[in-house]
Write a structure and sequence with these properties.
single chain, alpha/beta, seven-stranded mixed β-sheet, four-stranded mixed β-sheet, elongated
Length: about 260
């Protein structure tokens, strides 16, 4: 509940919120930054105003919503989309790249040199996770390294990669920085620290039970495991995680633990 209250308090950092249609929503973070989201994929899409154009981050509202997203962007800023950035290569973040490239946007993949931005690469959720810090709005886009609507997915970088990624994010900006997760509500560094604490609590508990010889089904039924899992349910959803996803989370955590059995948190 404490983490939930922290995330609720973040809403007061957002200047305004408006439902734009049945499928898109938009949050005005500052004069220079909006965050849009489509209901189909719930991906947080960054829209950042430069002097002579716009930067679009993770443009994927849904496969049938690109033209709608384009119209909404044009209603917010009377500027062209000049650059497209992706926090990682998964389709729920890159699906709109081709559409907006045809509108004139340039996809930046390697040679990153945008004034007012800091870019770092980490390995946690995917083989290459791009973190973008926008100085003027004091906002950090972290992709699926941090997700306030789901459990942690640290499978590519493992325990070491996850911890290094969180450290890298914490080193950006200041204590007032707004963090935009890949999905879910915006957060702050206090929430990110809580997310890391809960993740290591989860890993350590799964490790303990796995070493006792418990199988996946027995681990899933453990009340302490269920209590830890519930800490990621910051919006108090009644059906936070389907059983199939819950089982996969336990199984993949065990795989990471076995791969890094000598790593200590």
């Amino acid at each position: 509940m404490k983490q939930f209250r922290i995330l609720i308090s973040i809403s007061f950092l957002i200047i305004s919120f408006a439902a734009l249609s049945n499928s898109l929503s938009v949050e005005k973070v500052s004069e220079h930054l909006y965050v849009l989201s489509g209901k189909e994929y719930t991906t947080n899409i960054g829209l950042i105003a430069l002097e002579d154009g716009l930067v679009l981050i993770d443009p994927m509202p849904g496969n049938n919503q690109f033209s709608e997203l384009d119209r909404e962007i044009r209603s917010i800023y009377d500027k062209p989309i000049t650059f497209i950035l992706n926090t990682h290569a998964h389709s729920d973040h890159t699906g709109g790249n081709e559409y907006f490239k045809k509108q004139g946007g340039k996809l930046i993949e390697n040679a990153f040199n945008l004034d007012g931005f800091t870019h770092i690469k980490v390995k946690s959720h995917s083989a290459i996770d791009n973190i973008y810090y926008h100085e003027k709005s004091n906002t950090i886009f972290v992709g699926d390294v941090f997700d306030t609507s789901w459990h942690p997915t640290f499978y590519s970088g493992g325990i070491k990669g996850f911890n290094a990624a969180i450290d890298a994010i914490l080193d950006l900006g200041d204590d007032q920085s707004l963090i935009i997760p890949g999905h879910g509500v915006p957060a702050n560094k206090s929430s990110l620290l809580g997310f890391r604490k809960n993740t290591f609590e989860w890993i350590n508990k799964i490790r303990e039970l796995n070493q006792k010889g418990w199988d996946v089904e027995r681990i899933m039924g453990d009340t302490q495991v269920q209590d830890i899992l519930e800490k990621f349910n910051v919006n108090n959803k009644s059906s936070f995680l389907p059983q199939k996803a819950y089982k996969r989370f336990v199984e993949r955590t065990i795989t990471v633990i076995k791969r890094e059995k000598h790593v200590k948190s």
